[in-house]
Amino acid sequence: xxxxxxxxxxxxxxxxxxxxxxxxxxxxxxxxxxxxxxxxxxxxxxxxxxxxxxxxxxxxxxxxxxxxxxxxxxxxxxxxxxxxxxxxxxxxxxxxxxxxxxxxxxxxxxxxxxxxxxxxxxxxxxxxxxxxxxxxxxxxxxxxxxxxxxxxxxxxxxxxxxxxxxxxxxxxxxxxxxxxxxxxxxxxxxxxxxxxxxxxxxxxxxxxxxxxxxxxxxxxxxxxxxxxxxxxxxxxxxxxxxxxxxxxxxxxxxxxxxxxxxxxxxxxxxxxxxxxxxxxxxxxxxxxxxxxxxxxxxxxxxxxxxxxxxxxxxxxxxxxxxxxxxxxxxxxxxxxxxxxxxxxxxxxxxxxxxxxxxxxxxxxxxxxxxxxx
Length: 373
Hints:
Elements lengths: L17 E10 L3 H12 L2 E6 L8 E8 L2 E8 L5 H9 L2 E9 L2 H10 L3 E11 L2 E9 L5 E10 L8 E5 L6 E10 L5 H12 L2 E6 L10 E9 L5 E9 L6 H9 L3 E9 L2 H11 L8 H5 L1 H5 L6 H7 L2 E5 L2 E7 L10 E8 L9 H15 L3
Parallel strand pairs: 1-4, 5-8, 10-13, 14-17
Antiparallel strand pairs: 1-5, 2-3, 2-9, 3-4, 6-7, 7-8, 10-14, 11-12, 12-13, 15-16, 16-17
């Protein structure tokens, strides 16, 4: 979908009080099976449900929680309508990046005044456990930002949901570190400007094809950040010209447009988290053996045992503030689109620039197996 044109002279900016990521909603083909997968493989607790049993006739939704991470799996109950249409077009993927705000009406009004397209006007949903104020605006592709104020609500998630108590055991995943967005060639700067104008986000870091490239493919990326204490971070990628089709272009081709490529989840102990996730069935990309031979010279001293990191395929990078550890899952559905990152930061503020080549080569090996490189 096309974005609303940006105004030539944006209004004087007053920061929209974004408090952080409230939840991430997926549109999927089968919500019950998706909830089971994230519970069994990733350790999420199923904590709430909405569907025909709660008076919702067109969809079924399951809420999953781990630490401060809240995922919602929503599936259509028929072949028609917005949810079914998006699943048919995109496959399983992220529909809503919901943002906590203190004033939904002001957040929605300010965003629309600055050029955002309204999806849902501010409204209140309520039940015996209180009320939640909601609104939504459209961002890249079919993705939306939902504004949420649940300060007057004591229920399990939203009105229309009931309690569910199915523990997943956890894996140490604590919070959403960042969400990466893929957009079409030539539109990255447009969306960077959109986030600057709509929310006052600033460019935190940027990378080009000289930073993120292999023999075959490359991308450009700018990281926008805003909200309370920089609590909302969206790297925005676009493909760059390469000898063959990049992983970003493969995503755009299979997702049929721009969308959320991956969600990075922070842990305080990546070795324990990844070891547990692997034993539970989560599948991760493999790093080349040569990566670990050169790691000590590139990274220097770290607290973790290098042999243990090699066994788990955990990557390491460093900047002037410290180092980080990260690993990426394989795509979590049949289409080579959405995947997850597990990340631990020990002072580092970056996104693993030194690991991009190893990551891309791992992705390209899988692209080659699919015949898409």
